[in-house]
Each structure stands twice: as structure tokens, then as C-alpha cells.
From TrEMBL:
It comes from the Bacteria. GO terms for cellular component: membrane. This is Acyl-[acyl-carrier-protein]--UDP-N-acetylglucosamine O-acyltransferase. It comes from Posidoniimonas corsicana. The gene is lpxA_2. Residues 174-253 form the UDP N-acetylglucosamine O-acyltransferase C-terminal domain.
Amino acid sequence: MAHDPLARISRQAHVGVGVSIGPFCVIEPGASIGDRCQIAAHVTIKSGVTLGSDNVVEEGAVLGGRPQHLNRIENPGPVVIGDRNVLREHVTIHQAMHADGETRIGSECLLMVGAHVAHDCLIGDNVVLTNNVLLAGHVQVGDRAYLGGGSAVHQFCRVGRIAMVGGLARVAQDVPPFVMIDGDSSLLVGLNRIGLKRAGVSPEEVKRIKEAYRLYYRSGLGFDERTELLGERFRTGAAAEFGDFFRGGSRGFVRERRAPASVAIRPIHDAVAERQTPDEVAPAIKRAG
């Protein structure tokens, strides 16, 4: 174990083989750090945190803070973090609300500067939370999901596997797997085709996912009928996973963004080109809507 003499490491903490700990770190009693982790300066790892092996934690991160709640939490649950994650500067990850719960981060995730994971969140593997992403309590994020900078997810929401959420999006309902959310409108704008390709999903399976997507979002059927048809038509594979997603959750589901009605620009352009007066241009604007 190589650690800076200015680090404060409890004798009741477990520190694995080959761990590097920088100056001014605080490792509390009951914390556990796996082998070959690199802990930069000014990191706090609090009691109840289990950190797997080969993780990198950058300056100012706080792992295992108490849940942010109006009620005082007497017996918070643990924080469990997998292997080969990178937690950048000032990442915060909070304990679970109760001793029988947990806040869990999978393996091979990247949490960029200032990302916040609240109490009882469950984060899968290969997840990317970019700068200043905010996850409220009890949020679930599936494997290979990507959340853009400054996006915020409401408590109890789910973000499905291989979903992509645009920067500054306000996610207040569940995001199905394999889709993209526009950061401006916070609405669904189609499948995450690049993410599916990178995840090794076959073109045939992508086609089936597209069929399931169209059935749910564009068939015009009621919710119960749509979910029933998804279960009947797609029983295996990723398309079945897409359909099964709509059978769970408590927040409802993100709506699809529809293209706005086309605007007739040509009459306005012609009127301006002819240098007509405002009174003469007004009818063209009215016709264009």
C-alpha cells in the first residue's frame, strides 16, 4: 500500500494490495478499498462504502455521504461500487436510506466531473454520466446508458439499457431501453442506433426493436393493447426487453417528439423580396400560419 503521509486512513478500514492514496484523503472506519485502486488527493470514502478493484477516484470526490433527506437517517445502507470505474473530480455518491437498501454502481462506468448519484440508485455496467449529471433517489440506469451533461433524472425513474439522454434533458418519466432523448425538448427522438451497433446488437435484432418501437409509439392503440401486443409478438431478445420495460415502473413513460407541421416559408420570402409593405406582407404571414 502506497499512501501519502497526509492522508487519514482508519485502521478499521480495509485497503487492498497496490492501492495508492493521495494527500488529505479521509478513509473512514468500515470503508473497503479493493486492490490497485488509485485515490487522488482530497477524496473522502466514508463508512459503509465498498470499492472494488482497479478503480480510479479523482480529486474531491465524496463516496458514501449521508442521504439528502428532510428526515434524519439513523441507519443508512451501504454504497457498493464495482471494478474498473473512473470517478472524476467532485463526484458524489450517497448511501441508501435504510440499512437493508443499497446504492450500487456497476463496473467499467465513467462518472465525469460533478456527477451526483443520490441514495438508493442502481447503476449498471459501462454507464457514462457526463459532467454535472444529477440522479435523484431510487433512480435505475441500465447497462451502457449514456447521460449527457447537466441532465437531471427525477426520483424513482428508470433509464433503460443502451439509452442515450441528451445534455440538459429533464427526465421525469421512464426512458425505455435503446432510445434517444433530446436534450432540448426532453422527448424521445428515435432509437440509439450508434449505441446499439457499439453494443454488438445485430442488424436483424435492431430491425425487431424498430418494429416494437413503432408498435408502441405509433400504432395509435391504447396502452394496455400496445403492451399486450408487444408481449405476443416479441417473446425473445432485445425487442422483448423493450416490450417488458413497459410492464414496470411507477412514473409513466417519456413521450415521442413529433415533427412540427411544415411552415410555408415561400410566400413570406417572395413578399419580402418584392419589398412589400408590412400591411402587404401580413396576408402571406397569416397564410403560412
